[in-house]
Specification:
The protein is an alpha/beta fold. It is about 25% helix and about 25% strand. A seven-stranded mixed sheet has the order 3-2-1-4-5-7-6, sandwiched between helices. The radius of gyration is 15 Å and the shape is globular. About 35% of the residues are buried.
Amino acid sequence: MILAFDTYYFDNKAKTVCLEFEDWNEDKNFKIHTEIIDNVAEYIPGEFYKRELPCIISLLNQMNLKNIEAIIVDGFVYLDDDKKYGLGGRLYEKLNNQIPIIGVAKTNFASVEKDKKALLRGDSAKPLFVTSIGIDLEEAFQKVQRMSGEFRMPTLLKELDRLTKE
C-alpha cells in the first residue's frame, strides 16, 4: 500500500487528505481518508513541519500502518545538504524510521543540492523535485516517474491537491 498526503489551510483550520493506493501507476482505484483539525499552528519559515506534521500524524493514527510501501508528502525530506530534516524527515523519524518517505515538491529548495532529483514529466519544462529517506533516491525517483498521468503532476497527486481544497 502507498499513501500520499497533502494539507490545505483555511480559517485557522487544516484539512488533511490521504490517498491510499496499491500500484505506483494507479490512476482510479484509491481510497480517500480525510480529517479537519482546528487551531493549527501558524506557519514559521523553515519550520513548516511544526504546522503540517501534527495533521499527518493525526490522520495516520486512524489508519492501519501495516504493509505500507511508502508515504508521499508534498514537500522536502531534507532542508539542506547536511540532511537537516524537513517535513519528510520529521515524519520518518516520528514513524520510528520504519516507513520510507518520498518528498515530491513543486518548487525548488535551493539549499538542497545533493539529495534531490529534478523530474520532468509530460511536456513540462518545470520539474518536480524528489527527495527520499528510507528508500534509495533513484528508486524513489523512478517510482514517482512511473506514476500515472501525462502531465507534470501525476494524476493521483493532482487529485489529492484538488480534494484538499474541495
